[in-house]
Specification:
439 residues, alpha/beta, Aminopeptidase, Aminopeptidase i, Domain 2, 11 helices, 27% strand, binds cobalt (II) ion
């Protein structure tokens, strides 16, 4: 296997992106930082927008969803929008408001389960906390990002001597009683909740009493790594779906002059159904697209005409074939790591792909010179979904669901391919760079 220096660099940059993004709020912040370094400036939803061809901007909503855009050179009405969508959140554990309590001299933090993680993978990992804190100020409050760099928490396994059937029955946790994370000992000097708030206050650079609220994700402090005989694989947390965010963002930052208006839409809350003010089933993307039209001097009919010319590539990860578990896969649709991006198809529209969207993505891959694969789930297994169907439904645009092959989706440590990531960036770049209008 030949891995070029550019392909290796792309994978390492992805791992750096993930390691800088231990929570969806950090992911959006890191995307904003990268966009600003490529000449994008922030637009605020509270202000009036005046947009010129070639303008590069981004919009943040709720600190964890972000829409980035490059205004096209051709009239919006005839050229439409080219949209890449992905999600910033990953399943895991989130800290309860009054989380800290003490039991037999051990301080623990109560957690809620966010989305559908493989809970057993959180055991025996070097865990810590990252998120945002609402801090009281003289004018009200402000949100501050917090991140504990070193391991702060742990979920120690039960010894096999006390759980003799673990290798036959699997590792199971009762979500209420067996998931609280161990934080420390004692509690004599400081009540447990006060200890938690003082730790948070130190990270947020404020007084404990100034903390009015918080949203904290549990994250794995182990950095990403390349692995395999030739380092052809990558492992990290949150590859679903920060790998797609990184591919979409990288492609967008490489756009120079485009004919159509190019959009990268990165949503929080996908893992819990997307129904929120900043989720893919909320108004965010439609609001931003309509305001791009209005801010470019296009009226509402023109906006609807632009949508009719538009196309959405919904990028999320796909299930790579794991040869130890052949029974889990549809045998005619095995997708392999490092064999190229996957077009995801489901007749019940769990994926938004139809044959025209499929054709368009095949064309993109051919022109970009990258291989591609096609996936469908086993008929006797329930299929997952993505932001694709709901985003396509809300906007009324044609769409395709794609994604790179991934092992162990929703594990705290997922794996994917170095080549696939490079291929996906090229395919999305091709999408943004295509001349002319929708085909
Ligand atoms: Co996903």
């Amino acid at each position: 296997m030949i891995i070029t220096p550019e392909q290796r660099a792309g994978a390492l940059d992805l791992l750096a992106f993930i390691d800088a993004s231990p929570s969806p709020w950090h992911a959006a912040d890191e995307m904003a930082r990268r966009l600003e370094s490529h000449g994008f400036s922030r637009l605020h939803e509270t202000e009036a927008w005046r947009l010129q061809p070639g303008a590069r901007h981004f919009v943040l909503r709720g600190d964890s969803s972000l829409v980035a855009l490059v205004i096209g050179q051709q009239p919006l009405v005839s050229a439409g929008f080219r949209i890449v969508g992905a999600h910033t959140d990953s399943p895991g554990l989130r800290v309860k408001p009054r989380a800290a309590h003490i039991a037999e001299g051990v301080i623990r933090l109560g957690v809620e389960v966010y989305g559908g993680p493989i809970l057993a993978t959180f055991a025996d990992r070097d865990l810590s906390l990252a998120g945002r804190v609402a801090v009281r100020t003289t004018r009200g409050f402000e949100s501050r990002l917090v991140r504990f760099q070193s391991p702060l928490l742990r979920l120690p396994n039960l010894a096999i001597h006390m759980n003799r059937a673990v290798n036959e029955d699997g590792l199971k946790f009762n979500k209420q009683t067996e998931l609280p994370l161990l934080l420390g000992t004692g509690g004599e000097e400081l009540p447990p909740q006060k200890l938690l708030m003082s730790l948070l206050a130190r990270e947020a650079n404020c007084e404990s009493e100034s903390i009015l609220g918080f949203e904290l994700a549990v994250y794995d402090t182990q950095p990403g790594a390349c692995w395999g005989a030739e380092g052809e694989f990558i492992a990290d947390s949150q590859l679903d779906n920060l790998a797609s965010c990184h591919a979409g963002l990288t492609a967008l930052t490489r756009v120079s002059e485009t004919s159509a208006t190019c959009v990268g839409a990165f949503f929080d809350h996908e893992e819990i159904g997307s129904e929120s003010a900043k989720g893919a089933d909320g108004s965010l993307l439609a609001d931003v697209l309509e305001r791009i039209a209005l801010g470019s001097g296009v009226d509402r009919e023109g906006y609807k005409r632009a949508l009719a010319q538009s196309f959405l590539v919904s990028a999320d990860m796909a299930h790579a074939y794991q040869p130890n578990f052949p029974q889990a896969y549809e045998p005619q649709h095995l997708v392999k790591v490092n064999a190229g991006p996957v077009i995801k198809i489901n007749v019940n529209q769990r994926y938004a792909t139809d044959s025209t969207g499929e054709a368009r993505f095949v064309h993109l891959c051919e022109r970009a010179g990258v291989p591609y694969q096609k996936y469908t789930h086993r008929t006797d297994l329930a299929c997952g979904s993505t932001i694709g169907p709901m985003t396509a439904a809300r906007l009324g645009v044609t769409a395709v669901d794609v994604g790179n092959p991934l092992w162990a989706m929703h594990s705290v440590r997922e794996s994917a391919g170095v080549l696939d990531h490079a291929y996906m960036i090229l395919a999305l770049q091709q999408f943004f760079d295509e001349p002319g209008t929708a085909g």
